[in-house]
Structure formats: structure tokens, C-alpha cells
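Session log. Operator J.P. requested a structure for one protein chain; no other inputs attached. Running the standard single-chain path with C-alpha cell output.
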Amino acid sequence: MPQTAATSLTLQQQAFCLSWLSNAASDKVDTLANLETHVRQSVGTFLADNAGKIADWSIAWGPVASSHEGSDPTALYYADNMLYAASATVAGAPCLVVAMAGTNEDDAYDWLAEDFSIVRQIDWPYGNGGFDGAATPKISHATATGIADLLAMRDPKAGGVQAFVTGWTKANPGGTVIFTGHSLGGALSPSLAMATLAQNGGPFANTTTLTLPSAGPTPGNPDFAALYTHFFPAPAPDSADGGPVPFNTDLVNAHDIVPTAWNDVKLTGFFTNTGDIAFKLAMDALLASLDGLAHGLIGFNTYAPIAHQTFAADTPDVDYDSLQGYFGLIVANHLAAYPTYVGVDDALTDTTAAMTRATLRQVQTHAKRLTAAAKAQTPPATTA
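Structure written below.
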């Protein structure tokens, strides 16, 4: 991970921070303009607080928020999606980071339309950029919904993000463009990067295009993963783009359930209860039922993750004594574990806390419904 004389955070760390900050308004309901302003202010505060540690970033596009409910300037909305781009000179060369938010934890539409709509796959609609080695790439309906929303966003001065990125590459030869996001953003960022290149007919001339997804669910089928690898090959571990936080590679906490979706969901394999044996047995039965629900929904689809690199957060063998406690572990391993591993948690404390609060609210709200649905199922049969 390259550093320059003027910075102490690597380019990967800086891009991750910019990615994380796209979620700064995820626990708020407000006008779209105010949600955008909150993200802009959060980025500005981060830049001021870390002056001397990072490059001279400035917002070049957005932030733009969207809601499926409309765009009335006086109405209050949750942001279904949030997108912005920041530019800087890094190691003497221009760099652009395109950062998109993950699931808005308080927004039911995000959970249902952009996360869980995975029973249906659709053909990849953005072309192959001249690569014929992946005959039938497909993506989940959820990912397709999110990408379409991002592509429809408009900065009042700079237009759509695809046109903006294309123009930026022409104006900044020798530059680097990084698409980045966490969670839902970890599925959308590599997909948006692919759509941008494919519709350009292939990679931009005189430009290095990279991705930095984290905790991203699996967007599509094996041919989609092959198309992604063609455009975004994993870097060599000892290269400047490699290391513990490599570009073009989904960064995955081994104890995070979300990045396994939707190819291999096994809730029973993530946490071991070391406390009350009766509660442990009840949890094992419940989680087996949840696994059965998940596999019943997606068993007829094929999903394959893009290239990923795992790290192990703290050992997940803990004494939890409630379903809420179990889901609290899920949230901690899906959110706070990542900035800690990347080494930037101090810079992102406020945003991480907001994301965690909102997610826990939703987990606690839906825990009873989830439990009831699982208990209504017959646990899958086991084989010796």
C-alpha cells in the first residue's frame, strides 16, 4: 500500500475512509439536500481532522442522495443510495475515488429491493467491453436495482457519474480511478466499475481503474465473476496494490455473514456459544432452520463471489444469551471490525457508531419475525 512523503495513511486506507464516510447519513431521515449536506460536512470534518496524514482530497461530484419515494425538495426521506466522488493528487498523479454507501439500515426498501431481492437473476445489461470469455454473466435483481439507481443519479453541475468519470479520465491522463463501498456498497462498487468500463468499450486510455470493495455480498453468477476478474485482476500480494488491503479484491472478515450471501449461507458456522448449554442447543436448531430458509430461496440460482481476501477479527466464541446478542455479534463483525483491521477506526468513530446504532435497531425490530419464520420451517435433514 503506497505512501507518499506527505501522508501517513496509505492510498487504500484513504480510499476506505472515503468509502466509509458515504454512510454518514445512513441513520437520518431528512430532505435529500440535507442528507447530502451531512455527508459533505462529514467528509470535510474528516479531511480537516486528518490534514497532514492524507492527500489533498476535495469533493468533485455529489454527494447525491436518492429515494424511491420521490425527490420533493421539502419532503423527508431515507437515502436509498448515496454517492460522491473525491479527487486529489497522490504520489504526484491525479486520483479519483468514487464512493457509494451501503445499506441504509433504517430504510426497508434498501433491505428488500437492493439486498434481499436475490431469487431472480437477470442478464448483465451493460455489455462485456470486448471480452468474450464470459458468455452469460448474470447479476441478482437486487444488484441490478442498485446499479440502475446509481447510474440515474445526477449532480446538478456535473451530470451523471459515468459521464463525469469519463470526462475526468480524459482531463487527467495518467490518473487512477477507484470505485469503493462497504456492504451493499461492496457489491455495487465493483459492479458500477464494470458497467462504466464495459459501456466505455473497455478500460480507459492512460488510466488505472481499481476497485476497493469490502464486506460485499456476491453480486452475480460465475460468468459475472469471470468478467470482473478480466477487468480487475487481483494484484500480486507483494505489489503496491496488494498487501493486507488489496485493490480489486473484496475484503472479507471471516466472521462476517454478509459477504457469504448469496452463494453459501451457513449461519451455524459463524459463532459458538460457550455459555448456557440449553440456549446453545436452541440457537443451533434456530440457525439450522434459518439456513434451510436461505437455501430454499436461492437453491435454484448459482452465485459465485468475486475475488476476495479474508482476515480474522476477534475469536467469535463468546457467551451470548439472547438472539439479540447473537445478532449484535453479526453487526460488530460486519461493521466495526473493518475499520479496525484497516487501521483507521479512530478516524471513523462517529460514522461507525451511527451505522451500528441504526443496524442494531433494525436487527432488534426484525428478530422476532425472523425467529417466527424460522421456527415455522422443518429443520433440514442431516446426513451422517
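Operator note: The CA atoms of residues 287 and 362 lie 19 Å apart.
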